Amino acid sequence: MKRLILLLAALLLNVSPTYAAPFTGSGMVYTLRTHDSVSFGANADWFALVGVTSLGTCATVEGHVVFMLRDDARGQRMFSVVLAAKSAGMPLTVRVDDSVKATGGYCYALAVL
Fold it and tell me: For residue 9, what are the contacts with CB-CB under 8 A and spacing of at least 6?
C-alpha cells in the first residue's frame, strides 16, 4: 500500500515541461520593412498587421506585433506574399511560435497564409 501511495504521489508531483503554442493573427498589412543586410545584419526584414496587438510573448512596436522574416528562400517568398497582399489590400494570416524569436523578443513568421 505504501508503494502505491508513493508511486501515485510521484506521478502527481511530476512536473511536465511546458511547450510554446503556435499562435495565429490575421489582418491587413500595416507596414512592411526591408533593411540592408550589411548595415542591419541578416534577418532584419519585418512586417506588422493591423489589429494584431498581441500573440503569446511576441514583442510589439507601437502596439503592433512585429513578424520577423528570415533571410533565406522561404523568407523571401513570405516577403513577396506580404508585399502582394499589401499592394492588393488583401488580409493575411500569419502563424508564429513564440519560442522561436529574434533578438529583442520579436517572433519569426513561420507561415504566411
Answer: none
Q: Rounded CA gap, 109 and 36, in Å?
A: 19
Residue type (1 letter), 99:
S
- Report the alpha-carbon distance of residue 53 to residue 3 in Å, rounded: 51
Rounded Cα gap, residues 13 and 62, in angstroms: 42
Q: Residue 48's beta-bridge partner residues?
A: 31
The three three-digit cell numbers of residue 91, written as one number: 488580409
Letter for the amino acid at 66? Answer: V
pTM: 0.79
Q: H helices of 1-113, where?
A: 2-13, 37-40, 73-88
Domain spans in the chain, listed from the N-terminal domain onward: 20-112
What DSSP state is assigned to residue 21?
P
Q: What is the pLDDT of residues 99-109, one digit of tens each?
A: 989 989 999 99
